[in-house]
Predict the 3D structure of the following.
Amino acid sequence: MTKTYQKGHPIWCAGCGHFGVQGAIQNAMKRAGVELHETLVLAGIGCSGTVQNNIGAYGYHAMHGRVLPTAIGASLANPDLTIIATGGDGDGYAIGGGHLMHGFKRNANLLYVVMNNGIYGLTKGQDSPTKEIPVATPEESPLDVLMLGLSIQSTTFLARAITTRSEQLNDLMLMGLNHAREGKGMAFIEVLSPCVTYNDTYPQWMNKVYDLDADPDYRNDDRGKAFFDVNSLVQQSRIPIGLIYHGDHASLQSSLVSDVTPFRSLDDQHAERINQHMEDVLSAYAV
Ligand code: SF4
């Protein structure tokens, strides 16, 4: 593979927001000086899931909704890797919704980027948890995951960007990448990344975003005030963007596994025991 591998090219529709997200990830890696061979990019199922084909780092296409537990496992197994988990809102908030809550709780050292377009693009536009459905079900509120993240006390980095504001998106991506690499826990960035084919929300979202980074009265280091302000904006049908919250909390690595030897440095005897154990397990299940 090292001789024949070639990174892929995006297969997205012209105008899809995901181009901007991929560009921001690559921009952040370059500015942070992160080498491709030191990076694992994981992706969930969906149009956004193909991003891991295009970057040229190690890649893993996880089962639907399972990108976070896979990424957390990778971050525990090899703490020297830079872990970038990606996916869409259907993958991460519906099928993977339970894992998202535990991802917020565990605060493992990784960057998780969700490309939110309000629908399942790959399967031709079914509603996702973030879709606004004013006619069909006017009483049903779309999910705001930043408020979910704010409600869990162990979150340390929560941000939202939109692909039309590339400078802010690039800066937030770099901050998130550095947060994860410095061992401060999970950096979560939701990017409003419209699907021009099945749910073109560019006009609505560009009018509705409210840039908290530009608001001198906003405090992104005060969880309670941030929750109050974000909730107020949501109730006014605005979409807050910017660095929503950052704070300190022990990462999963620092609180639970500081004395665990990573797999990569197991001595031969230990590795032999694991191999024997795996063979015993496999033979026990053999029919
Ligand atoms: Fe992007 Fe939508 Fe096309 Fe998928 S269907 S590539 S989300 S524009």
